[in-house]
Amino acid sequence: MRKFKVTISPGNSNAEFEEGKLLTEALSVFSIFPDTPCGGKGICGKCLVEIEDIIGRRQVKSCNYVISCDLTVFIADSPVFQKSSKVKSEIFAVDIGTTVVKISALIDGKFTEAASFLNPQRIFGHDVVSRIASREYDKMTSYIRNALAENIKKLCSSDDAVRDISDIAISGNTVMLALFCGINPGKMGTFPYEAPIEELDNYRGKFNELNDNCRVKILPCFTSFLGADFLGCAYYAFRNYHGKTFICDMGTNAEMAFISENTVYASSVPLGPAVEGMNLSCGMTAGDGAIISASGIYPRIEYKLYSGGRALGIAASGLADIFSILIKTGQIDKSGKIINGDSAADGEKRIYLKDEVYLSQKDVRAVQLVKSACRSGAEILSEKSGFVFDESDNIILAGSFASSVNSSHVFSLGFFPYAEKTKVTIAGNLSLKSAEYALQNSGYIDELKEFRKKIQFISLTDDSSFEKKFYENLNF
Question: How confident is the model at residue 31 (pLDDT cuts 50, 70, 90)?
Fold first, then answer.
């Protein structure tokens, strides 16, 4: 296969890449990570870069520009490299999600969410299983560390500010944390799914990609399937809520637990990236042009955008609203079939929402599968733990999907069994909050380690009833 040279200007650093490689992947080798909130579908235009190739000098979308000749990328002239809002902070908290990475900064004694970006490891797979199977561990470690460093540097006002950064605390699932630390995650991909819990507990590395003195706190994990993100969520519920509590952190995986005074029953079920807005035709992370909520009756639907005047895609928080409306008004039937819609060139049905944003039949099926997996996991955990949803005192929904979603829609769509008399709380990103607590409270990490002794792990996916429940729960 032919190779072509990519040169970065200014600086003239260059490398050769095989024909057919995406420009975003090539740029990552130079520690350049364009913003791709649409997941590389080319619908948002956030990854525009200035290039010169055999056609001439122009702007292209780096997420779908395929390398087929020598080219130069002009960093200084590209909108994607313009500096973002600055913060003055020496302390940062990070949640490394399988799909999205979130950063908050300590400013005047208070943490403020400062930035987010798509995890560049996604080119090796959309979930932890596919990333483990890729075996590209060194590359994935380099990609996430460099991407995190570059995004934090963009937040800093000067090189001196970067050198002054002293502490970073990192939460996330077990695989993401292992890859950040350079720990081989291979054993987590095969039975008995051994997790490097002690190695992560004892990690004492520095974040040299920022400066040689930056200390890193890695929050403790519980198992391969229940990482620091889950542990922070469960401990939050344990500390702050009384009685019987159900909590679920909804992201690429659904990590859930039933909690009472001295008992924690917990498990995890894979959902995939659709619940975070990825893997959908017009899915994207919350940003300029993203639909984050909807209300009304089809076709007279009011859409709220994160920012901007034109809809570019659908964020996770808008999905439940849109689906609830379309099902209620008969555009999607209980089986998930689009009843009234436009036909694409390939014959697939679509429902156009706003501007050029739409849902396809494949999108509906993707959300259906997510909903069924989540509901089936919750039901089995309920049965095995002896907790009943209707008898719960509290239900807490956390994670990217639940950050600003209408909780009634989550239940009406069937993600969880109804619990009519139970108080439902939308708690936001508790994984990021856990990282923040670790930086403000010296004993917090030890508290997490002590708390995890209370947890009883219940396997869901190898349960004989899971497949049966999964098919029973497919309908909306």
Answer: confident
Distances (CA, A) of 23 to 31, 43, 63, 327, 364: 13, 16, 6, 39, 30
SS3 396: strand
Three state DSSP letters for 216-267: EEECCCCCCCCCHHHHHHHHHHHHHCCCCEEEEEECCEEEEEEECCCCEEEE
Confidence band, pLDDT 50/70/90 cuts, at residue 78: low
Directed axis angle between helix 228-240 and helix 430-440, to 10°?
A: 80
Residue 216 and residue 30: Cα distance in Å, rounded?
24
Instruction: Specify the CATH number of the domain 91-218.
Output: 3.30.420.480
CA 47 and chain centroid, separation:
19
Count of alpha carbons within 13 Å of 445, Cβ hemisphere only? 19
**Position 5, amino acid:** K
C-beta neighbour count of 131 within 10 angstroms: 24
Digit-coded pLDDT (tens) for 329-350 = 999 999 999 998 888 888 899 9
CATH topology of domain 3-81: Ubiquitin-like (UB roll) (3.10.20)
Over residues 3-26, the pLDDT tens digits come to 999 999 988 888 899 999 899 888
- The topology (CATH level 3) of 239-272+368-472 is Nucleotidyltransferase; domain 5 (3.30.420)
